Amino acid sequence: MEKVYINSIGSISAQKTFDNNDFLEEIVTYQDNIIPVIEPNYKDFIPPAAARRMAKGIKMGVVASKIALEEANLTDIDAIITGTGMGCVRDSEKFVTAILDNNEQFLTPTSFIQSTHNTVAGQIALGIGCKGYNFTYVHSSVSFESALLDAFMQLELKEAENILVGGVDESGDHTNAIHKLIQHIKPEKINSKELLHSKTGGAVFGEGANFFVLSNKKQDYSYAQLLGIKTYNTLAKSDLVANLEVFLKEKNLTFGDIDVLISGNNGDIDYDNYYSELTNGPFKDTQQVAYKHLSGEFNTASAFGFWLGAKILRTQHIPSPVALNPIKIKGLENVLLYNQYRGKNHSFTLLRRC
């Protein structure tokens, strides 16, 4: 089996992450329950005529992928694998609204064509002329992990050498309104610095695009080694620690071998207690990190956590805005990411310094 490495990254998020030379030196604070991404100058990456016809999610994905490819010094790759929970939801909303407003008549197909979940991966492939394997996973909040696992297995088995993997989701007004009605979004606007200490239900929603070039060829500029991914559709809190122990044992690791735990806490008082099983249990003396107060919650928010883990291992630095406890250990080797959403779709991802 070949080892798998993260050779480059590209991130468009609610923070200034599109410049890979920075690592959360300047944090943007929000007072809201829905936060947008900080968009780069798309004209620097996409011809203006083409950008005008692209949905926001497509533009975010295309730019994040270009940043990742440029950092990896690649113009083409063997495969493109993306994960998305809602796809280009804004165009979906436009098309459904047009159906209702026009009594199902005189409809233009543009919004429908651009609303499909695989549009981002298709646009990336067209842009770089990639005719290789192209697949999009739509698996709710493990969509990114599903794409990651696909790429991981292909690279382990030497079926490919360089694969572009990413997670992308955009924010849609109508969809957010529904999430507010069913109380998945917090009813009150909250300062992002205080989110993780919130005592109310629901999350602060966001959006973003995070892409990575994975390879079985280690480079001098590689960020980290990807050791493994494990997902569960359902997992009881009482079984969480035991299942994680089995996963770590498969990689010849124990709880004590983990130097940093990156948790997907989102400030939802009804479900953040899943993370407490680990933070107050086997990892109570381990450095702990969180990120959704910076990125917001969305189906592929865990891709931002993956970006954070890769940056931590390469820089050997944990920015203070993401630290959950004062514990500091030098020589960071192994990072564990744990994410779940509303008690379902749990994922463990292991990274190692390379």
UniProtKB/TrEMBL annotation:
Alphabetized InterPro entries for the sequence: Beta-ketoacyl_synthase, Ketoacyl_synth_N, Thiolase-like
One Pfam family hit: ketoacyl-synt
Example of a GO biological process term: fatty acid biosynthetic process
Key words of the record: Transferase
Gene3D superfamilies cross-referenced by the UniProt entry: 3.40.47.10
Chain coiled-coil ranges: none
Keyword Transferase: yes
Every Beta-ketoacyl synthase-like N-terminal domain range: 46-218
MF term (GO), any: 3-oxoacyl-[acyl-carrier-protein] synthase activity
Protein name, UniProt field: 3-oxoacyl-(Acyl-carrier-protein) synthase
